[in-house]
Specification:
Elements: E1 2-5, E2 10-16, H1 20-25, E3 39-45, E4 51-58, E5 66-71, H2 72-84, E6 92-95, E7 100-105, E8 119-120, E9 127-132, H3 135-144, H4 150-159, H5 196-204, E10 210-217, E11 228-231, E12 234-245, E13 248-256, E14 264-266, E15 269-270, E16 272-276
Antiparallel strand pairs: 1-7, 2-5, 2-6, 3-4, 4-5, 7-9, 8-9, 10-13, 10-16, 11-12, 11-14, 12-13, 14-15
Length: 279
């Protein structure tokens, strides 16, 4: 079993109150009321349908709150934006302090963490997360297990096409560009939300010109989010998510669909497409 301290990368925003489900329904691309899986992905768009944030949304069985897991650098901006739209709704939005957030990769069948505490990821992998405030439980877990580097968790995200929106790429990508429709992060029947008209128009009337792909560079690169992807010397896309491990660079990147894929590169290093998600 591999454990990852996800708070090395993410912060938690807690949304509660009598009207919190109705409120969030008008802000998110996914259907928050049908979150039976307890863990879903969703986008949060600006009026032009561009992603303001990509969210991991948790609902624990013993809580009436919704928890947003979001890169720490965007947490304040997301909280501020949500609070702009509360108006008279009975909703409380606050940073969730004193919580523990642990990612679990079950490589070993001898698991000593009870299944009812784990929220399975919706991407059909052997991954799950735990969110809790019990310091005694945290001590028990860390006494028996050490935390692995978070790069291995990010690599798993990339392999399954899970994007990331950071400050450098905020409001630059469209929902379909980041394949949110392919990872069950959009519900096209839930009704109105900010940016919904653009997202629905692309889905029903258009065809995405950009999609995200999983690729590998056979060396470690110093990259940034939004780093340009080239076909020979022409820019054709940008980096959505990345990590370096095992002397390689693993990249989720978006690009136009009409490129010569054997000529792709980042910073002059050959980029090999490993997986296309839109078949």
């Amino acid at each position: 079993m591999m454990l990852v301290n996800l708070l090395d990368r993410y912060s938690i925003i807690e949304i509660s109150g009598e009207d919190h489900l109705d409120f969030l329904q008008g802000q998110l691309t996914n259907d928050i009321k049908k979150n039976e899986k307890k863990f879903i992905y969703s986008g949060m768009c600006n009026p032009k349908g561009r992603l303001f944030a990509f969210l991991r949304i948790l609902r624990t069985p013993d809580s009436s709150s919704i928890f947003f897991v979001i890169p720490s650098s965007l947490a304040d901006a997301v909280q501020k934006r949500l609070m702009m739209f509360i108006l008279r709704a009975k909703v409380v939005i606050q940073k969730a302090e004193n919580f523990h957030l642990i990612g679990i990769i079950d490589d070993n069948p001898l698991i000593d963490i009870s299944a009812d505490r784990k929220l399975n990821l919706p991407d059909q992998t052997n991954r799950s997360v735990m969110i809790f405030q019990d310091n005694d439980l945290y001590k028990q877990i860390t006494t028996k297990h050490s935390f692995d580097d978070i790069s291995n968790w990010i690599k798993k995200d990339i392999e399954f096409g899970i994007p990331e929106v950071m400050e450098q790429t905020q409001e630059k990508f469209l929902v379909h560009t980041c394949n949110l429709d392919l990872i069950d992060a959009v519900n096209f029947k839930k009704g109105c939300y900010t940016g919904q008209e653009i997202v629905a128009r692309t889905h029903y009337l258009g065809k995405p010109k950009h999609r995200s792909f999983y690729g590998v560079v056979n060396s470690k690169l110093s990259l940034d989010y939004g780093e340009q992807v080239f076909e020979n010397d022409q820019s054709v896309g940008a980096v959505v998510n990345f990590t370096c491990c095992e002397d390689k660079t693993y990249v989720l990147f978006e690009k136009t669909l009409d490129t010569q894929d054997d000529s792709l590169n980042i910073k002059g290093e050959k980029l090999v497409i490993t997986k296309s998600f839109a078949n």
